Amino acid sequence: MDKQKLIGYDRKIVLENGAEYYGYGFGYECERVCELVFNTAMLGYQEIISDPAYTYQAIVMTYPLIGNCGTADDDFESKFSTLGGLIVREYNDVPSNFRATKTLCEVMEDYKIPGISGPDTREITRYIRDNGTCKVLFTAADTPLENALEILRSSSIPTDAVEKVSCKKRWYSRTANAKYSVVAIDCGIKHSVIRALNAMGCNVTVMPYDTEAEVIVKMKPDGIYISDGPGNPEDVACVIELVKQLKGKYPILGAGLGHEIIGLAYGAKTYKLKFGHRGCNHSIKCLADGKLDNCSQNHSYALDADSISGTELEITHINVFDKTVEGVSCEKDKVFGVQFTPKCASNPEDNSKLFKDFINMMKGEN
Length: 366
Hints:
alpha/beta; ten-stranded mixed sheet; single chain; 19 strands
């Protein structure tokens, strides 16, 4: 400890196994317990920290330099950030970006997100890969280890993540000359998805996660989007029931958590991955044509392939690395889901084939 104080470290993180990593605090200073995960993306840290799917999680960024681009008002994926914490090797608080409006530290202070720079993020990442995700405590550098471990033992990760991030009342995102009306069930929806649907001629009505089926039926939508979001899909039984009641009545697209919810609605099962998939370099294979694509992902759970065989779903995509299920569909009901994040370019011609398939379903062409 004397050596740590001499160096000037003011913060540390403590893992459940007793490992301590010292560093320098940035963002909001507080004591907090989170689930420890890692992200392999080289770019897009602003989109990552504002992704609701990271609720109650602390991210270890494997890319070594974070903060050098600052943040831009137009690049947030949500109205507020619910990230648990951020762990980086080196933090840059002097951004070089003409679009920057705030530093990353300032944004983290606004949303009460603790951060620490300096720990060996390579070592922490290897630990997660070998042992799986675990709890981590952000605390002061001089907190006794036994006190920190007691805090970890007595703390649990909340299971109300979707309730925390979902909107409390409906809101609208309309576009000129709209051709379709889409109801988006907000389990932690990202703004880039809404913009992509708008760009393809869809008016989007975003609804709280606990909206009842009767309410949606009265809205007479052309299609329904079940959004991505945080946590265990089994914790949102109301959304699973919603899909059960609406499947076959409207085209339904689910992504991330929404994909898992669709699987559960059809009778499949989910399980928690050892360390999840987070980053932008995951290779996905489409079983229909054999084509490969790289995509971004952020999830802890996956659909069990064996449990799908007894349902009306068929597997459409798999992960090349670990063979996990990345896509399912029910052609009869016009329902499909993908575990990965659809590409959301601003140009409709560049948008993901998934959105185009969704549009074609609403047209009645599929």
